[in-house]
Prior knowledge:
Helix content is about 30%, strand content about 15%. By secondary structure, the chain is an alpha/beta fold. A hairpin with a 2-residue loop joins strand 12 (about 295-300) and strand 13 (about 305). The radius of gyration is 28 Å and the shape is globular. The N and C termini lie far apart (about 65 Å).
Amino acid sequence: xxxxxxxxxxxxxxxxxxxxxxxxxxxxxxxxxxxxxxxxxxxxxxxxxxxxxxxxxxxxxxxxxxxxxxxxxxxxxxxxxxxxxxxxxxxxxxxxxxxxxxxxxxxxxxxxxxxxxxxxxxxxxxxxxxxxxxxxxxxxxxxxxxxxxxxxxxxxxxxxxxxxxxxxxxxxxxxxxxxxxxxxxxxxxxxxxxxxxxxxxxxxxxxxxxxxxxxxxxxxxxxxxxxxxxxxxxxxxxxxxxxxxxxxxxxxxxxxxxxxxxxxxxxxxxxxxxxxxxxxxxxxxxxxxxxxxxxxxxxxxxxxxxxxxxxxxxxxxxxxxxxxxxxxxxxxxxxxxxxxxxxxxxxxxxxxxxxxxxxxxxxxxxxxxxxxxxxxxxxxxxxxxxxxxxxxxxxxxxxxxxxxxxxxxxxxxxxxxxxxxxxxxxxxxxxxxxxxxxxxxxxxxxxxxxxxxxxxxxxxxxxxxxxxxxxxxxxxxxxxxxxxxxxxxxxxxxxxxxxxxxxxxxxxxxxxxxxxxxxxxxxxxxxxxxxxxxxxxxxxxxxxxxxxxxxxxxxxxxxxxxxxxxxxxxxxxxxxxxxxxxxxxxxxxxxxxxxxxxxxxxxxxxxxxxxxxxxxxxxxxxxxxxxxxxxxxxxxxxxxxxxxxxxxxxxxxxxxxxxxxxxxxxxxxxxxxxxxxxxxxxxxxxxxxxxxxxxxxxxxxxxxxxxxxxxxxxxxxxxxxxxxxxx
Length: 727
């Protein structure tokens, strides 16, 4: 009699919803399939030669020479006979990802990895920009080119691929670029504008957003489906007779139907539903079946890659049991991440635990990756960011709860590579049971700090991680002539909506991809982040004060109020425009005393600069544009941003970080605004002490450039002496 490779626990306990529950019924297709416990004192397999794996996250590939398959619009004709199907530069400069130049960055990254001898490439999600057929087919064609040269690709799904679990034939974009420099709306044929035959809209299903099953089939050869060359391929639902893997058995179990699980609005369905309902004291609702694309593959002897489908699409109030495949019936996965995995995909947690145990028993080098981080990716600065900036700033809703790191560490998984936040960083966590987990955030190729990670096991308990920056990208300026036309149109247009979209043309003078993305982030900060993330009075200060003025203001002590600034012109470029009118105190000082107080503060600031071996006047070179650009670049690129700043500017920031009073005076507020009766220095010192503390935390985090992970010693160590830090 044959037996399955995996078997289920014999009984279930009514555990909490967050517990890792064993499957109860052999008939539940979505219950986890778990290996038997490893035998005592197993003999590990010989350690194989280490294989380097390149992790390229958040490519956000858009096929800039794709085909809309539309007689109405083919794109912008180019001199070499191709058509550029690109988004506007304004769209790029107001987005947290590039849409166009990352096409060339992907080629550059693959060429660089290939030249380094790397033949295994993992893509932790958002490999396309919204899973449109034109983009999916485009990146697949590129990967096939490199497969022909000996590379292998293994992908995980992100919240942009798919955007929804089922096809969205209403999707599209309104900012494709025309040859005249204008915006063109292009939507899928089910869009209301297309159904209404709006003459201003181009309609083509090349821009529809494809769902899970369609992507799984189309991208099957990149890990989603078994390959005859692999030594092992399985899903959380695989069952191999007599514990023996065969390609034919894997292929037979690889269909979407074989990989379904039940999800409900309140939590995991299937074998987990009863315990969840008991915990909540009510029945689960809006339950349906979805496909999970998780797979484990052994492409090289001894190397296990675990691609985790951490997309969680929770049925929402629009879910219709009579039409369960409508994309409108599900919330997006972007903010869900691992917070929802541990509650709504509990079978995955149990499967990860089984994989980790088997990898340890068999001496496999396990590398797990998913699109989403498993712990705080902001160097543990998340709460400070919530306290200082506007509600929702920096997408802090996407930071995993502390329970996530504990739950993932408890599975025994020791290394996870994530993406999603376009952030370069490293964090680690040890749970109460002593389980150690390292989360490596692989940066995006489509933003400032563009880079990929190379991960290699040096031995069973030591991992080397290198960050390969893409400062040089051939052909990165190939589309610039089209942006010149756009810029000319915007400058010459009298349409109010065009005037607000004018951007700084100097970005087209950049000489490298590194320079281009650096300036892109400056413009992104100016055009979007400063309004979206910074409270009014903080935005005014950040966009008006240079480094010298900031250092002096950190030392200022005055009784002159914000309301009196209008009567003390020329001292510092601030106003009371963001404050509410308050009641003046009984006794006041003349506004003219601000000049004397400012001079006293200047003397103190000079002493601080001199003590650090610097000149106060040099701080004036730290312009407002440079400062807030540096802040946002550090949020995203961490250690890589400090390298771009250079030692001199890092030293200036270190002085500013230590310059503020230990306990700044509190801000008097009227509602949610500061009172204009606050002394001039109070709002700045209170708020920017926090800003610089966050900047220091982000720039003093665990190593994120070249580092080693000691799994046994439970520590992350810098492997390079060239890194800069704010410590």
